[in-house]
Amino acid sequence: MSLFPPGALAQTAPEQPPPKPATPQRAPAPDARLYIIYPWDGAQVRGEFWVRFGLRNMGVTQAGSAAPNAGHHHLLVDVTEPIDPEDPLPTDNQHLHFGAGQTETKLELPPGKHTLQLVLGDQEHRPFTPMLISKKITINVLPSAPAKTSKKGSGKGS
User: Fold this and answer.
1) In this structure, what CATH number is given to the domain that contains residue 89?
2) Do strands 137-142 and 112-121 pair parallel, antiparallel, or not at all (unpaired)?
3) Which residues pair with 56 in a beta bridge?
4) Burial class of residue 122 (count of CB atoms within 10 Å of its CB; 0-12, 13-18, 19+)
5) Alpha-carbon distance 19 to 89, whole Å?
6) Does residue 4 form part of some domain?
């Protein structure tokens, strides 16, 4: 004898999907500021050069960390398309990720004009909302200096 009427077990509610994980904090500190320390806008650089990142009123942490009021840097090189604040930033030669919490890097770009801009990303590489983004700067990369040749004598008569 069954305690349930016929078909009762087949009418149970469908299984619910597991709850989504809590959304990480997506808003930057209201007074946070992201900027490029070096090179400055309009700078001329040659060969390999340092890019130093600046951040005020927030912390720098590694990717994947849910530390409050912190994120990690992404350097955009010659990026012209808009950033989608809902998607993780791409990873390619124009979207450089610094997921270990780095605050500087060495770059080597071909000669010519280039733009650099920083975006602070959350633990999932997404921009904060509203986006915390630096001013876009333009630099001019000069051709590398030719190697200096030695002007020593040929050794004859010395």
Assistant:
1) 2.60.40.10
2) antiparallel
3) 33
4) buried
5) 25
6) no
